[in-house]
Amino acid sequence: MADISQLLIFFISILGILVGSFLNALVWRMHKRIPIGGTERSQCTYCQHQLSWYDLVPIISWLTLKGKCRYCHKSISIQYPLVELTNAIIWVFSYYLLQPDSTSGYLVLLLWLVTVSVMLALAVYDIRWMELPDRLVIVFTSLAILIVFLQIFNTDKTSISQVIDPILGMIFIAGLFYFLYSISNEKWIGGGDVKFAVGMGLILGLQGSIIGLFLASLIGSIFGLGTIWILKKDKKSLIPFGPFLIAATYIVFHFETPIITWYMTNLL
């Protein structure tokens, strides 16, 4: 059984890296308005030279080329291997945490792996271009709805709270964000964050959404103060909030109960 588990982890890792490579291409094509299913070959963003298959091997190509284009020798962003590795890590981590032991459990895992990859793509896009694109947010929200349905029907006895809680979570956080968006004329929070909050609220429920909002704000504040202090950035520099919401969503999805237990034990 242990051998099967190790083999599955290896498979998840490799597939996670490959999907991470796809995410890099996905966010670039979306930004450049290139059809996702188009036949255009990948090319260097500087010299536009079409890349061969050996230039596109995830992580390995970047390392062997020492982070430079084979043809024009311009630097290739570390984003590419970093996203590939990050996607693999969060996939393996999710498998360890969910520990599926049934067909429905593996369905939840598969759906969650797709969801976290979409979340990673959203985070990368927001970091690079200060925007959460509608097409990806719609996919994320659709996946969130499917996760809620699977979680409801994956239990022996469905309670009314399992149905109401995701709706309350969505109303709370999306409603709050829309209120802040409206009164600040998009200065405090962006429209993409409001749309992302719909899926976030559905996945986390009311209690999880409150914890997620607090956690995202805490991480964002620490990061913001860190960039001002270490990188000497101006206090008015714009920092996207989406990546912090995304990180908080992942953390609370897996660790909501331990977070509450720690809070009740140590702070109350």
Instruction: Specify the oligomeric state.
Output: single chain
Contiguous runs where pLDDT drops below 50 for at least 5 residues: none
| Tally of structural domains | 2
Number of helices: 8
Order of helices and strands: HHHHHHHH
How large a portion of the residues is in β-strands, by DSSP E?
A: under 5%
Residue share in helix: over 70%
For the CA atoms, what is the radius of gyration? 20 Å
The average pLDDT score comes to 91
Q: Major β-sheet, in short?
A: none
For the terminal residues, how far apart are their CA atoms? 42 Å
- Form type: globular
Strand segment count: 0
Structural class: mainly alpha
Characteristic terms for this protein:
single chain, 268 residues, mainly alpha, 2 domains, 8 helices, 0% strand
What does this structure look like?
The protein has 268 residues and is an all-alpha fold. The protein has 2 domains: 1-99, no CATH class; 107-268, no CATH class. The chain is 71% helix and 0% strand. The protein contains 8 helices and no strands. It has helices at 2-31, 60-64, 79-98, 103-129, 134-153, 160-183, 191-230, 242-266. Helix 4 packs antiparallel against helix 5. The longest helix is centred in the last third of the chain and has 40 residues, at 191-230. The protein is globular, with a radius of gyration of 20 Å.
